[in-house]
Amino acid sequence: MASTGGNCSSCTWIAAEGGIVPGTAQRFANFVERTETANFGLFLHLNSVGGDVNEAMELGRLIRSNGFNTAVSQTVGDERSSTNPKFDQFVIEPPVSSDETRPACLSACAIAFAGGNLRLAEETISEPVSFGFGSIGTIGVGQLFSQEAGMGAASDGASDPEIMVQILSYLNDMGIGSQFLSIMAATSSPDTHVLTAEELFETNIVNNGRYVAEVAANQNGVAIVDVRFQKADGAYKAELFCKAGKIRMLVEADWYVSPTWNDVESWNLFKNVLLLGDTEIPVRLLTEKPSGGSDTAIGPLLFEFETEMTRIVPLKAFSFTQGPGAQNRYSAASLSSLSFVLPDDFDGLYILPRTCL
Question: Could you tell me the residue range of the domain that residue 338 belongs to?
């Protein structure tokens, strides 16, 4: 475990550095069991030149089944013993900014990286993107090897038809496009190909910053703008529509750890919400606590933008914050997760006032 000591969502993570060798996946499984960190949406910061492809696939499946996210990022700092006996270390200093410390996830590491629910990487390290106190690095692919196929040549694993079928099946299970394997196989040994921004998104090896929006029609003829996006704590769907002259937003979330209505009351979640912009717009939560009580898990949440429709339909960025007096780190994180950006070429919000209930 690594931490800056802060309370932000990216201030605690799992540092995964070095080669992927036989036994790596089992050691990770033991670590997860010991630290009880599964299904909390934590990030693994991967920085590795790769290693054994079979081990990488096993590691990737463990990452996915335990609800972790992945980022290409190096962990550098002052290592100290943790006060928590379950954890291995604290890293309290930010990484230094130099070429030697810029992160990369290469070859078999990219296979393990694919296991993350939310996957963060960049196509260039010339101007690294900040993530917490670190920076996001690149995905590089090349010829693979398998311990079972032998260590004699880097291309042994990638040329074995059986292993290629296994990799393709694994990538399909992880939701990664087959183009990823094609790019990997086309890279001549010992070269490494750093994936471009286009390749990162086309293969779906990264899914950060991607928001899918489309216009759908309800059975009653009301137009709905359906926005889907992935965040560190789960997958989100926001439906925007018009009712009684106001734009409303119905949010459904598949959280890794679902909050309850007790959390809503204790931490003022989704209360006193503001939509940021030239001027702040109040956003009212219409959903009320169900009769089942405070321990009931949160279901779909319905919000209403308390302003004229004409102020909402031109917007691209829906960035939410909380008004004075209600803010805390949990409420701030919940609203950050609700925030999204519509694609530049999408203007479907303009249809909503025409089909208002």
Answer: 212-355
